[in-house]
Amino acid sequence: MREFVGVAEEIAREAGGLLREFYHRGVAAEYKGDVDIVTVADRTSEALIVERLHTAFPQHGVYGEEGARSGLANEFRWYIDPLDGTTNFAHGFPVFCVVLGCERRAPGLAADEDGEMVCGVIYDPLRDEMFSAVRGEGATLNGKPIHVSKAAKLQESLIATGFPSQKRHESPNVHFYQEFTLRSHGVRRAGSAAIDLAYVACGRLEGFWEFKLNPWDTSAGFLMVEEAGGKITHFDGGKFTLDSREVFATNGLIHAEMQALFEDMFAGRNLGPIPTPAEFAARRKAEA
């Protein structure tokens, strides 16, 4: 699969260069839903990626966020997010990336069953950071091996999450955000699930969780976290699948502690109180 990832890196760099040009000159945005932004950059990037993949691997299928679908029953299938972090991009916030993940599917596998992720890349064009992973060969950042962090406790950990672009009122994640903020070194919200997963893989974050993601968001990061020595599951510790609507990734060392907090949250146990402004002021005064 080394050949595959080399081609994917070249394609991601080309698509990333295109996005960088769009970003610096600005693009018009439109909406797919209430607040789900699409830009011409998304579509142009996906068209480029699909064309390059079809040229390099004519027998491979593609599954893109912006609608590209072909060869889904083929042995190899590429999941494409041509611009992960579209809302950031549209607002000029400098966090977004290109994602390509390749899955190998056994003969006779149903369309909705997972194969095996064999390689993936996540490219951040503004920082020129290429995260890559190959099944059984580890993960790298710009060609150098990466590994998850060695923090062993949640209270020592920096973690991340994200919020859905649609129907946010139906998401319980704001409650999880509060509880994890109280118990960790901090929670970050970068607006790109793929970058969050890459940062878990390289040790910049100890953990990441999010609701309602899609296969193109997680395909490359899923493999990257595992190849860097981390762990990725459902919230209850069950096996992660590409069609999962929940993602929970860590360095492995804090996985059980975070999972226990998920269980408490879903059961309504041991939840931290929200301090009143007066209590907060008194706490600050005592710490001064």
Q: Can you describe what's shown?
A:
The chain is α+β, with helices and mostly antiparallel strands and 288 residues long. The chain has two domains: 144 residues, 2-Layer Sandwich (Fructose-1,6-Bisphosphatase, Chain A, domain 1); 114 residues, D-Maltodextrin-Binding Protein, domain 2, CATH 3.40.190. Helix content is 36%, strand content 24%. The protein contains eight helices and 15 strands. Strand 1 and strand 2 form a beta hairpin. The termini are far apart.
What's the architecture of the largest domain, going by CATH? 2-Layer Sandwich
CATH superfamily placement of the largest domain: Fructose-1,6-Bisphosphatase, subunit A, domain 1
The total count of helices amounts to: 8
Tally of separate domains: 2
- Low-pLDDT sequence parts: none
Radius of gyration of CA atoms, rounded to a whole number? 19 Å
By CATH reckoning, the class of the largest domain would read Alpha Beta
Q: Mean of residue pLDDT?
A: 89
Biggest sheet architecture? 8 strands, mixed
Keywords:
single chain; 288 residues; alpha+beta; Fructose-1,6-Bisphosphatase, Chain A, domain 1; D-Maltodextrin-Binding Protein, domain 2; 2 domains; eight-stranded mixed β-sheet; five-stranded mixed β-sheet; globular
List the helices and strands and how they pair.
Layout: H1 2-25, E1 29-31, E2 37-39, H2 40-56, E3 61-64, E4 69-70, E5 76-84, H3 86-91, E6 97-104, E7 116-124, E8 129-134, E9 138-141, E10 144-145, E11 158-161, H4 173-183, E12 186-188, H5 193-202, E13 207-211, H6 215-227, E14 231-233, E15 246-250, H7 255-267, H8 277-287
